[in-house]
Specification:
By secondary structure, this protein is an alpha+beta fold. 33% of the residues lie in helices and 25% in strands. It has eleven helices and 22 strands.
Length: 399
């Protein structure tokens, strides 16, 4: 066991854990801060595998934490990237409608966006073609000039370097094994803290439950796959998204322009059978699979929040032609034969409320004087990371 007693031990070196360490160091310059992670380096899971989109804040209802932090977070991350010379592709985004029935949702997204401080506006089909000549939309589209993209690993590595330069300590390959009072037990040894902060992503529910929190929740993983367009980088100029179904937290198959201009389509939201089910057999855990599949079966039978329909539709996306066709309807000029291989998969750490059998759509934080748990930090958590971390520090850690 380490002889040090840390002021704060943070479990998880994703963007939320690193951002909370950054916020703490700002207000507690002399505190002893330790970040633990079970992997070899930062961002091995959701944070390092996400799309890299900086969202503009128009999907979220005004009473949500997501609405509160997305616009502010995107601005803060763009400023950080400028300071660190991290490339950002500020190409913007179009949300397009396929038919008359989807126009009302475009108006709702514009209303939400303006209320949340997002610079969005409805435009006609002709103006949409100025931004994306090949696009199809029915009468109107929603234009978001502030949506941008970056490489999330660039940000995570910069944050790690910044934190190490201000004496925040890191221990990697330290898998959480349990808690004994204020001692965090890991595969790399035991570490004592005055306050334990759980930012464990896919395993945040398990860490919380080991501390007596998050008892009504469990994590339901969803696998996200993107398909890369190999033909060129010029056939799509802007991010293009469909009108979403706001009853679930997934935004549908869309076109993403990465920071280097690469075009990709996705993601899927395929129910995964264990938390790190990136591929067949990767870190397979029979007990974990049995628990997750049991919850999925209940959701399937009850069709809670349309899970059965979602599952059927997402499984169809393993059919390459069907997957591509979902994207081609938005940009009919794209070459369906121009797509190459799938990119590295990601797993969305999505919290399920077991009492309501609904996916939790907003951020969830629980805690007391000894421990704090970031239970649900789903998209757009990367975009929101800096102000959300300040909020967690002020309300839960230091408050």
């Amino acid at each position: 066991m380490s002889n040090k007693i840390y002021d704060y031990v943070i479990i998880g070196a994703g963007v939320i854990g690193l951002s909370i360490a950054r916020s703490l160091r700002t207000v507690k310059p002399g505190a002893l801060i330790l970040v633990l992670d079970k992997e070899e380096d930062v961002g091995a899971h959701s944070s390092g595998r996400n799309s890299g989109i900086l969202h503009a804040g128009f999907y979220y209802s005004a009473d949500s934490l997501k609405a509160r932090f997305t616009v502010q977070g995107a601005g803060a991350l763009k400023d950080y990237c400028a300071l660190k010379n991290i490339p950002v592709n500020a190409c913007g985004k179009l949300v397009v409608a396929m038919d008359e029935g989807e126009l009302a949702m475009l108006h709702e997204l514009e209303r939400r966006g303006k209320r949340n401080g997002s610079h969005v506006r409805l435009i006609d089909r002709e103006e949409a073609k100025v931004y994306e000549p090949g696009v199809f939309t029915y009468k109107k589209a929603l234009f978001s000039p502030d949506t941008a993209s970056l490489d999330p690993l660039d940000v995570l590595v910069a944050l790690k370097d910044d934190l190490m330069n201000v004496q925040v300590e890191f221990v990697f390959e330290a898998k959480f094994l349990g808690r004994n009072g204020q001692v965090v037990k890991t595969s790399a040894g035991d570490f004592e803290a005055r306050k334990i902060i759980n930012c464990a992503g896919l395993y945040a529910d398990q860490v919380a439950q080991a501390c007596g929190f998050g008892m009504k929740y469990t994590m339901i993983p969803f696998k996200g796959l993107y398909l890369k367009y190999k033909k060129n980088k010029t056939d799509v100029k802007i991010n293009v998204y469909p009108v979403p179904n706001l009853k679930n937290p997934f935004l549908g198959v869309h076109f993403t322009k990465t920071v280097d201009g690469t075009i990709k389509i996705g993601p899927t939201a395929i129910p995964a059978f264990w938390r790190e089910n990136y591929s067949i057999g990767h870190r397979f855990d029979l007990r974990e699979m049995a628990e997750i599949v049991s919850h999925q079966a209940g959701l399937f039978l009850s069709n809670s929040f349309g899970f059965r329909d979602l599952a059927f539709d997402e499984i169809r996306k393993y059919n390459r032609r069907y997957f591509i066709d979902l994207a081609v309807r938005m940009i009919p000029s794209i070459d369906p034969e121009g797509f190459g291989e799938f990119t590295r998969p990601g797993i969305r750490a999505q919290l399920l409320d077991k009492t309501t059998r609904h996916l939790v759509q907003d951020f969830v934080v629980e805690g007391d004087r000894s421990t704090v748990h970031v239970l649900n930090a789903v998209s757009p958590a990367f975009t929101c990371a800096f102000p959300f971390a300040d909020f967690v520090c002020e309300k839960y850690i230091l408050g």
